[in-house]
Design goal:
By secondary structure, the protein is mostly helical. The chain is built from 2 helices and no strands.
Length: 117
């Protein structure tokens, strides 16, 4: 029984030593490849920065297009209002001229009646 316990302890100790050896080898491998990891990390970071910059450029272009569309809509609205006002002014002037013509005809009619009397 005691021998079995000692064998069990020996196996566990050997397993722990193997685990420690594996861990050390893994750490050594990471240390050996750390320049590669750093390079990959730099590339990844550069890709993230590039993607963010592209997103910002796209957003600026979209905002510029939206602003241009809004400016165009305002200009079109102002032009429509100007044309409507111009048409209304022309209609008022035409009505005024007609009224003047009617008034002049009325005066001439009255003068003709006075001369007949």
């Amino acid at each position: 029984l005691e021998q079995q316990q000692q064998q069990q302890i020996a196996r566990e100790l050997e397993r722990a030593q193997l685990d420690a050896l594996r861990d050390e080898k893994l750490r050594q491998q990471v240390r050996n490849t750390s320049t590669e990891l750093r390079d990959l990390q730099k590339q990844l970071q550069a890709a993230y920065v590039s993607k963010e910059q592209q997103a910002q450029r796209t957003e600026r272009v979209a905002m510029t297009q939206t602003a241009r569309q809004q400016d165009l809509a305002v200009a079109q609205e102002m032009e429509a209002r100007r044309q409507a006002e111009e048409a209304a002014a022309a209609a008022r002037e035409e009505a005024h001229q007609r009224q003047l013509q009617l008034n002049q005809e009325e005066l001439q009619s009255q003068l003709a009646q006075q001369q007949e009397q």
